[in-house]
Amino acid sequence: MSETGRLWLTIALAGAGTFVARVSFLGVAHRMADPPIAVQRVLRMIPPAALAALVLPAFVRPGGELDLTQPRLVAGLIATAVAFRTKNVLVTLVVGMAVVIVLDQL
Amino acid sequence: MTEAVRPEIQGAWDALPIAIGIIPFGFVAGAAAVEAGYGLSGAVGFSVVVFAGASQLAAIDLLSGGSAIAVAVATAWLINLRMVMYSASLAPWLSHEPFRRRAGAAYVLTDQAFALSIHHYGKGAAAGERLRYYLGVAVPLWLNWQVTTILGALVGSKIPDEIPLDFAIPLCFLVLLVPTMKDRPTVVAGVVGGVGAVLVAQAGLADAAIVLGAVMGIVAGAVTDWRLTPEDP
Questions:
Q1: Any CB–CB contact under 8 A between B174 and chain A?
Q2: How far apart are CA A28 and CA A24, in angstroms?
Q3: What is the Cα–Cα distance from B64 to B58, expressed in whole angstroms?
Q4: Cα B115 from Cα B90, distance rounded (Å)
Q5: Which end of chain A is less enclosed by CB atoms within 10 A, N or C?
Q6: Do A48 and B215 touch (CB under 8 A)?
Q7: Rounded Cα distance, B173 and B2, in Å
């Protein structure tokens, strides 16, 4: 197959599978208006588990390898304290970015 | 922002810092497609059809490195499998919307649209305002992704490294994460989800790290919940 053919077949298949993942539950959401309590109890775990899985690797392995002696972990820990106290996106962003930029200069 | 603000404007406002953080990522996605020889059309194709940054970069890298289509596609699917969790998490909140709108909402579903919307709904949002808030987040982020992809494809990735804009994205997620960990089970879900993702990535399965880590966290949180309160209240 030509490289162009390989490209567009990959785009089409990757896009189709990704849409299936996205629409999986939203597509049948009309049957999830009032999910059983057991289901609700599991759904409640998705935001903390998924968000932590996005956040922690960015703090401890930003370069693709575990590294506990780099600016992003320090900034992440300080930002966690700020986020906990203020619950404010902008303040947390400014503090976290400032710590990384300053430590990167050292 | 005051309470009189339209939900879509509120969503766009909340998405703004995240959109700025995504800019360098979009540039890289556009530039990577061009450097791999797929041109502007390939870059736009990936960003419009797949619309998921990490999977786009992985697929471009594999495909241009000579991997089989099946490998590139399966890797992209694996990276985007986490969308199933977001879809499940959002579904009860948007159950009153017609299928067509839910399918449209699904197309623009991202980590950011999920995280901001669930956070917003948890504070109490009228049913009629939920999709509007969601689209207020998701549609500007979609546009932002397309524009930055095109710019990256045209001029390359020339954002200076001194400003670590990409770090803005985990910091935003962090602020959304903190209020979700409000009792023992949700704290367990977060801790196990985060540590699990790191361990999976360290084990060499970086593409599967987010979804596998999150599943570990969900299971651990649910088990803790059942141990503490075996009977449904």
A1: yes
A2: 7
A3: 10
A4: 10
A5: C
A6: no
A7: 23
Cβ pair B26, B43 in contact under 8 A: no
| pLDDT for residue B233 | 58
pTM, two decimals, is: 0.90
Write down the H helix ranges in B65-126: 69-80, 82-90, 99-107, 111-122
pLDDT tens profile A34-49: 889 899 999 999 999 9
Q: Report how many Cβ contacts below 8 Å link chain A to chain B.
A: 288
Sequence-distant (6+) residues with CB within 8 A of B134 are B11, B90, B94, B105, B113, B117
What burial class does residue B60 get, using C-beta atoms within 10 Å of its C-beta: 0-12 exposed, 13-18 middle, 19+ buried?
buried
Which of B85, B18, B88 lies closest to B53, judged by CA? B18
Least confident stretch, B102-111, B125-134, B169-178: B169-178
- ipTM associated with this complex: 0.91
What confidence tens digit (pLDDT) does each residue in B178-217 have? Answer: 999 999 999 999 999 999 999 999 999 998 999 999 999 9
B136 token code pair: 């207020």
